[in-house]
Amino acid sequence: MALVEVKGVSKHFGGLTAVSKVDLAVNAGEVHCLIGPNGAGKSTLFKLIVGLYPPSQGSILFDTVDITAERPYARVQRGMSIKMQAPSVFKELPVRQNIRIALQERLSGAERIAEEDRLLTLLNLGPDSEKLAGALSHGQQQWLEIGMALALKPQLLLLDEPTAGMSPDETFKTGELIKSFNAEGMTVLVVEHDMAFVRQVAQRVTVLHLGKIFARGDLKGILQDEKVAQIYLGK
Ligand code: ADP
Ligand code: MG
């Protein structure tokens, strides 16, 4: 059932505990939202899951295999892909070239070009495919990054604040896109601040606060939770 299991994971940076004894299960086939105030440890938890940081304590399982000691590349090969919070598109290269770089390991020739076209269309980037990535709007750059993560054809897609800098219309389209990947069987874990977006896509929600799990449950329960409203929505 659980595609990813985080068990008792902590991460210390010197004297600061960014993530503290976190248990989290992401079920195969779900869209799971991770929410919480700034500095709660969300991005750190993502980096622990993909192996960009070693945990100070605890273990991480993917598809029941303990991957705690695996390098990020090995985790990508198992089927994980991440869009990080900080933009990482190649701004000096055309949009299509960005997608191509991400596809290169998996596909070549006509098959690769067909997949480039499919992803560019899916992400509404078709008309801009020859522009430099740096010339895209911020929202479009986010889409391009999502496209690069999708190019790896992941089983698990991790998206850290995918709608930052997007208009409400772009945000809604992103939500619909995520739902369409999910309908095709992709498991998605997403960090998001925009509660309208969380309502649109989430099946289950985990709330992180001060590095710890503060609440978790189905979308409805979390939205009705007064403790969550207090810490998160400032009510
Ligand atoms: P969130 O994504 O929820 O806003 P982060 O995971 O980015 O939170 O950060 C959690 C805490 O860990 C913050 O206090 C942040 O300053 C600290 N932190 C994150 N990354 C590092 C790092 N590489 N070195 C030192 N402190 C860090
Ligand atoms: Mg963050």
Automatic annotation (TrEMBL):
InterPro entries: AAA+_ATPase (IPR003593), ABC_AA/LPS_Transport (IPR051120), ABC_transporter-like_ATP-bd (IPR003439), P-loop_NTPase (IPR027417)
PANTHER family cross-referenced by the UniProt entry: CONSERVED COMPONENT OF ABC TRANSPORTER FOR NATURAL AMINO ACIDS-RELATED, HIGH-AFFINITY BRANCHED-CHAIN AMINO ACID TRANSPORT ATP-BINDING PROTEIN
Start and end residues of each ABC transporter domain: 4-235
Pfam hit, one: ABC_tran
Family annotation (SMART domains): AAA
Task performed by this protein: Involved in beta-(1-->2)glucan export. Transmembrane domains (TMD) form a pore in the inner membrane and the ATP-binding domain (NBD) is responsible for energy generation.
Alphabetical UniProt keywords: ATP-binding, Nucleotide-binding, Transport
UniProt xrefs under CDD domains: ABC_Mj1267_LivG_branched
Database matches in PROSITE patterns: ABC_TRANSPORTER_2 (PS50893)
One MF term in the entry's GO annotations: ATP binding
Name assigned to this protein: ABC transporter ATP-binding protein
GO-annotated cellular components: plasma membrane
Organism domain of life: Bacteria
